[in-house]
Amino acid sequence: MIQRGIVQEIWESNAKIAIGGGDGCSACNARESCMTITGKKPEAKLISVENTLNASVGDAVELELPVSSTIQVIALTFLLPVGMLVAGYWIMMPAGSTHGVLGAVGGLVVGMIIALLANRTLSVKKKYQMRMTAITEKNCSETDVSK
C-alpha cells in the first residue's frame, strides 16, 4: 500500500507526515467508500515515520507498508472474526439453532475484539509501520500531494 504525504515536522531521525484527506483523496481509488461510510471527506492524518531519506519540511514523500504486512493485517482483521463466527456457530449448534446463532454472534464479537487488540499490538512493531520510500518533490504545496 502506497501513500503520499507532505513532511510537516522533523525531529531527531523521525518525520511527521500529513497523509490522506484533502487533495490526497482525489488520488485514492476507494474515496467514494469513505464518503459513503462517513458522510464527509476524510481529514488528513499525521503519522510519524523514520526519516531514512533525510526529507525536509515541505517535501512530498511516498510511504509504503510492505505487501506481506498488509496481507497479514487484512487476514487478521477480516478473516479472524469470520472464522470465530463459524467456530462459535459449530460449537453451539448441537444445543439448537438459537444457541447456534448466539454462538455465532459471540464468536464474531470475540473475534473482533481479538483482531482489534492484535492490530494495536502489531502497529508498534517496525515491520507493520509505514516506511518512507521516495521523495517525489522538494518544497511542494499541499495541493501537490495527489500527483
Q: And the CATH topology of the largest domain?
A: OB fold (Dihydrolipoamide Acetyltransferase, E2P)
What is the chains' assembly state? single chain
CATH class of the largest domain: Mainly Beta
Strand content: 15-25%
Cross-sheet strand order for the largest sheet: 3-2-1-4-5
Question: What is the string of SSEs from the N terminus onward?
Answer: EEHEEHHE
How would you describe what is shown here?
The protein has 147 residues and is α+β, with helices and mostly antiparallel strands. It has 2 domains: 83 residues, Nucleic acid-binding proteins (OB fold (Dihydrolipoamide Acetyltransferase, E2P)), CATH 2.40.50; 64 residues. 41% of the residues lie in helices and 23% in strands. A 5-stranded antiparallel sheet has the order 3-2-1-4-5, with no helix packed on it. Helix 2 packs antiparallel against helix 3. The protein is elongated and about 65 Å long.
